[in-house]
């Protein structure tokens, strides 16, 4: 199962995701996100917009690479990968 790392900013809303040894099943980003949602209800609403795409200020990576499909989350993931979900920094 892929390892999952969630930014500490989201731990206060979803403390169960603070586990450094979090591994969830899934062969695509979508499947892993669905399993995160089962563990932490409301997580998907926090990172996805009303159209079902990843929110503008949320970044999802597989290892060091940004995901390509921010709408359907179809990027493939393996047991050897780590999925990162974090908030993008913005400002001016």
Describe what you observe in this structure.
With about 90 residues, this protein is of the alpha+beta class. The protein has a single domain, classed as Roll (Ubiquitin-like (UB roll)), CATH 3.10.20.30. The chain has helices spanning about 10, 30-40, 45; strands at about 5, 60, 65, 80-85. The protein has a four-stranded mixed sheet. The termini are far apart.
Note the main attributes of this structure.
92 residues, alpha+beta, four-stranded mixed beta sheet, 22% helix, Ubiquitin-like (UB roll)
The stretches of 5 or more residues where confidence is low (pLDDT under 50) are none
Q: In order across it, which strands form the biggest sheet? A: 1-4-2-3
Radius of gyration, rounded? 12 Å
Q: Distance between the terminal alpha carbons, to the nearest Å?
A: 39 Å
CATH architecture: Roll
List the helices and strands and how they pair.
Blueprint (H helix, E strand, L loop, with lengths): L2 E4 L1 H4 L17 H11 L3 H5 L10 E5 L2 E2 L15 E6 L5
Parallel strand pairs: 1-4
Antiparallel strand pairs: 2-3, 2-4
Protein name: MoaD/ThiS family protein
Organism: Catenovulum agarivorans DS-2
């Amino acid at each position: 199962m892929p390892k999952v790392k969630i930014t500490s900013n989201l731990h206060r809303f979803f403390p169960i995701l603070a586990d450094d040894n979090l591994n969830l099943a899934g062969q695509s980003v979508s499947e892993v996100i669905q399993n995160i949602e089962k563990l932490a209800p409301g997580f998907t609403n926090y990172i996805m917009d009303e159209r079902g795409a990843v929110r503008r200020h949320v970044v999802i990576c597989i290892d060091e690479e940004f995901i390509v499909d921010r709408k359907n989350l179809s990027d493939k993931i393996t047991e050897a990968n780590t999925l990162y979900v974090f908030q993008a920094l913005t400002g001016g």
